[in-house]
Model the fold of this input.
Amino acid sequence: MKKNISLPLFLVVAFTANAQLNTTLNIQPTPTAVLSEWSGKNAMVTFIVTKIDSIPQQAIFKTEMKLIDGTVIGVTDITKAVPIILTKGTRVYFSKDVMPLEIMNFTGKYKAILDRTGKLPADNYQLCVQLIGQGPLGFQPLVAAKCKIFNMAALQLPILVMPANNAVLNKLSAQTAITFRWTPLIPQTQNLPTYRLQVFEVLANQQPVQALRSNQPLLDVSVKAITQYIWRPGLAFSATDSLPVKFIWTLQTSDDTGLPVIQTDGNGESRSEPFLFMIEATKRNEKKKGAGLL
Done:
């Protein structure tokens, strides 16, 4: 019995030792969540292979994506992998070589999220790449797998700052200009975000959320990377208008492709929590209104 066990083990060890290969894996510590972008950015993943001997050797890449606890969420279908020929010297391979998405099989909720959004959800991961070859026992490792940890940071959507929630603005000042401010997307991403600012009027007997979902926006503007916008609304209020007038404003954050920056959780629209503000007359203006001058 011992001989039957030791023989396959000997073959595996001998097959690995004969490879005479050294490998190094590097990955950006905080890569983009969009996996399709990895193949176009060579700096995202590099896998360096140095072959010591001069005998050409065929190999394929076996790549696994895991959670930090070792749970495999995606692995190469090695039956579909395209072999490479290793020759003496050093060569650098990239994400498109070691992790072609068309032959990566993802599982569970990660498959569902990637199929729907193309993005990895926020979490701590590790990427493991290994060279394997066809040996006496079928596919066998040529060298030990190399693994690197990377983080998919949870994005914090902007927080609305001004006008503050339930703020009351003076009518004359608001007719001239209303300044909107918010905090930036955190953490800062490689691609600058776009902020879509929308303002809706909340009509009488209407809930704010209803106004947000059903009314046409009075303001709908997108700005790149900056966290302030000055609106010159030119709102005109007649003597018959009932003040205060209530508004709701919101901010939607998108990436450089125009898609919401967060699609894997929350409302999937990357909308910040909306704020309300009101416009009303000052006491001086109320007197004018009583005189029929407003």
About this structure: The chain has two domains: 2-152, 160-290. The longest helix spans residues 2-17. The longest strand covers residues 123-135. Confidence is low (pLDDT under 50) at residues 1-18, 283-294.
